Each structure stands twice: as C-alpha cells, then as structure tokens.
C-alpha cells in the first residue's frame, strides 16, 4: 500500500526513481511524486494519476540531481489531489519526505504546529511529520546527517502510528535517510550507490544485496555507504540478504497483464508449494518450518486460521481440510475481527495466520494478539522477508514467486495446497492411515498436470465470460470445500470488473438469495462430482425454474446431468473432492479475468484497491 523508492549515487536519480515506482505501482496508484536534490535546492514533480502521467510531466519538465526520493500513493488521509501527493515539505521547504503508514495523532500535532505559525498545504498526516522533523532540525546548530537523525528521533518520539519514510534535505547533498515502524523498508547496496524501497521488487534491477530494516530503525545512506541505528539512539546490527528474485520474476513477460501471467504460473507455484514436502516413505507431509515435533502437534486440540480477503477464503478451505483429514476442531476468523475480539482459546489452540504479502496490517495485528495471549502462532506467507514471516513462531513459505497483480490468484492455490499438507500431516499423526496418506500424496502429485488441463480451458472459459460480461449482478454458489471458492470467485469478479457479485453456500439460496434470481442475473454454481453433487444439482434446478441462467463447473466425464439443465458447463479434470478447490478456483480466476478484459477494466490496477493493505 503506497510505494517508496529512494536513490543516492552518481547516476541521474529521476529515471531510477521512476522505474522503481513503475515496479511498485501495484501498491497504490492514485498519484505520484519525485523530489531530488539539485544544486542546493529540492526540486519536486507531482502528478495525480498513474506513474506514466508523472513520467510524461518529467519528460516535459525534467528534474536533475543524483539523490532523490519518490512515492506512489494510495490515499488514506485527504483526497487524491496534487497537493496531497508525496513528497511533502517542512516549513523551510528544504526537507522533503515520503511516507507509508498512518500517523494516528496527526490532527493534534497539526493543531499544535499551526498555533506556532506552521502553514500546511495538504490534508495529509505525512505533511505533519515533515514539519515536525524540519522544526527539530532547524533548532540544531549543525547541518550534518547526525543532526538530522537526532531531529528525526525527536519527531518520531512525538508520533503515534506507523511509518516507512525516506527523507532528503537541501543542506545535506548526497544524503538519504530512511526509518521504519510497521511499514516495510529495504535498503539496497550497489557499487557507489544505495537505494531505499518499500518493496524489494523496486530495486532488483539494480542490486540483489539488501538489508531489511527492522521496526524502529533509522538508516543513513550516501553513495559510499550506510549506517543503521535505532530510533532510541542505539546502534543496530544488520545482515545483508541476497535476493533471489530476478527482473523476469517481476516483469509481465509476454502476458498482457500480471494477473494472467500469475494465473498461468500456477502449475509451477503449486508444485513449488509441495516441493520437498511430501514423503512417500512415511505417507505424510514434512513441514520442518512449523518448528514443532509430532508429539507437540499431537497436543493441539483446536486450530484458528486467520487472514484477510483471499487469504481468508483459503483459510476457509483449510477449515474443511483440517476437520476432514485430521478431525481437529478448526475455526476461521477475519484477522480484522480476531484482533479486537476476545475469542476464548484454550491453551492447546494453535493459530495460523495466512498472508501473501506478510505485511497486511490486520493480519499482523492478529498474529501479535495471538502471541501476546501465549499461543504458538505460525505463518503461511509468500514474502519470506516480511514482518509476519519474521514475527511468527514458524510456518510454511509459499514459494509462489512475486504476486504483482492486485487480484490474488496463485497465492490462493498455494495457500490451499499448503493447508492440504498441514491437514495431511495432522491427520497422519492422528487417525489417517498410511494407505490414505499415500493416496493423498499421489493425488497431490497429479495436481500440476490437472492444473495444466484447466489452463487449457482458457479459450472456452473466455467465450463464456464474454457472453455474461454485461451482467449487473452475478451469484456464485458452492458447497463444502467449494463454498469458500464461491466466495473467492465472487471477490475476484467484483474487484476487477466492478460487477456486484456474491458468494454463498448453495443451500442458502432458498433462505433469501433466491429473490435476486431472474433472467438477467447469472448464477455460477461450482458442482464437481463430489458427495454433494446432487444437492448442488437441486439448487441449479431451483435457479433454472425461476429463469436464472446457470454456468456450472462440473467434472470431466461426469457432466451430462449438468449439460441437460445448465446454460454453460465448464468441466475440470476428475480430482478428489478435497483438491477440487484448487481447480475450480482457477476456472473462476480465468472467468473473472476475461469479463474484466471484455469490459475494458484495468485488470492489474483495479480502482480503489492496492496490493498489501498495510493500514488498518
Ligand atoms: C483479493 C486480494 C486481497 C488480499 C488481502 C490479503 O484479490 O488480493 O483480498 O487477499 O488483502 O492480503 P495478504 O495475503 O497479502 O495478507
């Protein structure tokens, strides 16, 4: 949510900053800005709109200098205007600052500064922070990086909230300063140049050697080197990490959209989620990252799975998986509710938090709340350098590669794959026989080839999607393992095509939703040939009896009954019911994608959304 890029070195800063912002545009794209140090002054360019608008403005009115900061915004405080776009300045106009996060007490600080005669030009919380740092620095007699760091410490001591920030000051040419609390910041080490970014994907084109800042750390960067210290004024240890992400990983390749690229990456991402984790010999899954022995896992009496959005839907599939394979009572909680709810949890409750980014504010808060209560809390994350990955007591990495399309796709199927492994492991140390374990492993191993077959259905799904693209409302339903997929299918559709869509358990139809059924409102029914197939079929009949069009997802070789009643049928390969969510969800990703394309929507950057919601 919002992106930061900073540069100090000997090259022209603006092109590097713009390229970094382009890579981060998926994090926020309301407005963007750049500030560089040029001959003793801070030059700034800001534009409302996309990075490309800023690039065009800079092409017309270039900005020089080899030290600079930049930002792409996802509005929290204040409307989307040029004034509210970052960077923001202090009273002197010499200090420029970009910020991710939220300063919770900005209103009272602003009132206090206004009383002192400070004038503000935006409605943002960030401008208050810039004024606080500038005011403290202007009271210092020295104009050194050390003095600016002291001023920053003083200012940060006054604010409540979260921040990832980057600062430049006209009096300190060749100096770039960053600090973090609750909003990620990574420092990139180049040759004679250094970088700051809120996400490593912004800088992998320039360096692979990075230092992830911890909360309450301040970094001072120059072309020659960098130092780290804490907000409290102590020294800080650091380790240099080699990033294994490549430029190709963060590019679109030949695909028109990241979302489509990531949908097609699922053969690999699901394979990678299982890689080295299946043991035929012991007929179970091996998940060393959980940091728990089988004896410890046996003591678990209850499991809570928590996450937001798509990760929550994956957790819902996990609830069915763990209960059916391991018979452990399992519950899903929206992270945003969990953090404030006083959920009664016995001491033998194990908590999993699920998050692709590992930075979602609500999920992180749920993790912290769970740990505060003394529960072992494990993470299922994609971003190995994320705060959730670092703060959890263990967990399972998704290894899905960067997910850049704002709509989550491959992260869902990776999360569900990992939850299947967890359910298998927990089942095998309880009531699941070794032959059942072996069967599940064999079925999991067959999954990538089945995903490949689903991906080959794209032209057929696209044709169907086009026919329904102009619907105003769409209903999604499924039962058991596929009830969460109905929720996820509806979420995918509404977030990228803006069609009102809702997902619910098929049998709930009769309890209210049926009132919405009419010839203009298609229903997508997920009805693979499983234990509840005939129940789903009855629900389809109920929709058809009221003139509602039905698109069904069924099973190859067993789709005849569906073809007789439904308007359109998409058939997935025959898979055991516990694994069908992985296949059916991919069908719905492709369906939503092609509807959005047909409607001319900006698939990778849907309105009002941003990847990784790092504010509450
Ligand atoms: C939906 C979507 C969001 C995320 C949610 C959690 O397509 O992308 O609903 O799933 O914001 O994000 P992570 O998994 O990063 O915690």
- Which ligands accompany this protein? fructose -6-phosphate
Strand content bin: 15-25%
- What's the CATH superfamily of the largest domain, by name? Aminohydrolase, N-terminal nucleophile (Ntn) domain
| Structural class category | alpha/beta
The average pLDDT is 94
Helix fraction by DSSP (H/I, runs of at least 4): 25-40%
Structure description:
The chain has 616 residues and is α/β, with parallel strands linked by helices. It is globular and about 80 Å long. The mean pLDDT is 94. Bound molecules: fructose -6-phosphate. Fructose -6-phosphate binds at residues 308-311, 355-357, 360, 363, 407-408, 411, 491, 495, 612-613.
Distinctive features:
3 domains, binds fructose -6-phosphate, single chain, alpha/beta, 26 strands, 19 helices, 616 residues, Rossmann fold, six-stranded antiparallel sheet, Glutamine Phosphoribosylpyrophosphate, subunit 1, domain 1, eight-stranded antiparallel sheet, globular
Structure summarized in a few sentences:
This protein is α/β, with parallel strands linked by helices and 616 residues long.
Secondary-structure blueprint:
Blueprint: E1 3-8, H1 13-24, E2 31-38, E3 41-48, H2 51-60, E4 67-73, E5 88-89, E6 95-100, H3 106-115, H4 125-138, H5 145-156, E7 163-169, E8 176-181, E9 186-189, E10 194-197, E11 209-212, E12 217-221, E13 226-230, E14 241-242, H6 258-264, H7 266-274, E15 278-279, E16 284-285, H8 294-298, E17 302-307, H9 309-326, E18 330-334, H10 335-338, E19 349-355, H11 361-372, E20 377-381, H12 387-391, E21 395-397, H13 410-428, H14 434-456, H15 458-468, E22 473-478, H16 483-497, E23 500-505, E24 523-526, H17 533-545, E25 550-555, H18 560-565, E26 568-572, H19 580-598
The protein binds fructose -6-phosphate (F6R).
Residues 308-311, 355-357, 360, 363, 407-408, 411, 491, 495, 612-613 line the site of fructose -6-phosphate.
């Amino acid at each position: 949510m919002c992106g930061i890029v900073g540069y100090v070195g000997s090259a022209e800063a603006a092109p590097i900053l713009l390229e970094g912002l382009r890579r981060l545009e998926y994090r926020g794209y309301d407005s963007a800005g750049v500030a560089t140090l040029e001959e003793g002054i801070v030059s700034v360019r800001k534009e409302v709109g996309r990075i490309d608008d800023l690039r065009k403005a800079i092409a017309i009115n270039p900005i020089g200098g080899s030290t600079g900061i930049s930002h792409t915004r996802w509005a929290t405080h204040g409307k989307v205007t040029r004034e509210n776009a970052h960077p923001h300045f202090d009273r002197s106009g010499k200090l420029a600052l970009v910020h991710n996060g939220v300063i919770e007490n900005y209103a009272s600080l602003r009132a206090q500064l206004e009383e002192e005669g400070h004038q503000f030009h935006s409605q943002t919380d960030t401008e208050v922070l810039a004024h606080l740092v500038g005011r403290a620095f202007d009271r210092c007699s020295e104009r050194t990086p050390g003095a600016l760091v002291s001023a920053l410490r003083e200012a940060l001591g006054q604010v409540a909230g979260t921040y990832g920030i980057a600062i430049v000051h006209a009096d300190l040419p060749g100096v770039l300063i960053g600090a973090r609390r609750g909003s990620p910041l990574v420092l990139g080490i180049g040759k004679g140049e250094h970088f700051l970014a809120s996400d490593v994907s912004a800088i992998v084109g320039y360096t692979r050697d990075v230092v992830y800042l911890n909360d309450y750390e301040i970094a001072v960067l120059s072309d020659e080197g960098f130092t780290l210290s804490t907000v409290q004024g102590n020294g800080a240890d650091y380790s240099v990490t080699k990033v294994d992400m490549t430029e190709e990983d963060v590019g679109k390749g030949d695909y028109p959209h990241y979302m489509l690229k990531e949908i097609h990456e699922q053969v690999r991402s699901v394979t990678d989620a299982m890689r080295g984790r299946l043991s035929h010999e012991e007929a179970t899954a091996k998940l060393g990252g959980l940091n728990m022995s089988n004896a410890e896992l046996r003591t678990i009496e209850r499991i809570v799975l928590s996450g937001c959005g798509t990760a929550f839907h994956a957790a819902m599939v996990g609830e069915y998986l763990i209960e059916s394979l391991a018979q452990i009572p399992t519950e899903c909680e929206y992270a945003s509710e969990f953090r404030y709810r006083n959920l009664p949890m016995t001491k033998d409750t194990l908590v999993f938090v699920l998050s692709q980014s590992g930075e979602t504010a609500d999920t992180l808060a749920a993790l912290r709340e769970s740990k505060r209560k003394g529960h072992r809390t494990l993470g299922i994350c994609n971003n190995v350098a994320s705060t959730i990955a670092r703060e959890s007591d263990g967990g399972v990495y998704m290894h899905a590669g960067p997910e850049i399309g704002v709509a989550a796709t491959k992260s869902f199927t990776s999360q569900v794959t990992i939850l299947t492994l967890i359910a298998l492991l927990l089942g095998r140390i309880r009531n699941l026989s070794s032959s059942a374990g072996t069967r599940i492993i064999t079925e999991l191993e067959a999954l990538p080839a089945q995903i490949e077959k689903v991906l080959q259905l794209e032209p057929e799904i696209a044709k169907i999607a086009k026919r329904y693209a102009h619907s105003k409302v769409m209903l999604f339903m499924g039962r058991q393992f596929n009830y969460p997929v109905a929720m996820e299918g509806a979420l995918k559709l509404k977030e990228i095509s803006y069609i009102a869509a809702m997902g619910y358990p098929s049998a709930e139809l009769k309890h209210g939703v049926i009132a919405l059924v009419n010839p203009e409102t298609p229903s997508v029914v997920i009805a693979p040939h499983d234990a509840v197939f005939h129940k789903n079929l009855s629900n389809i009949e109920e929709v058809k009896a009221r003139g509602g069009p039905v698109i069904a997802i069924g099973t190859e070789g067993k789709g005849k009954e569906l073809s007789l009643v439904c308007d359109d049928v998409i058939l997935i390969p025959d898979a055991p019911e516990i694994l069908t969510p992985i296949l059916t969800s991919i069908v719905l990703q492709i369906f939503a994608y092609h509807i959005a394309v047909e409607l001319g929507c900006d698939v990778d950057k849907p309105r009002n959304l941003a990847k990784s919601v790092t504010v509450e």
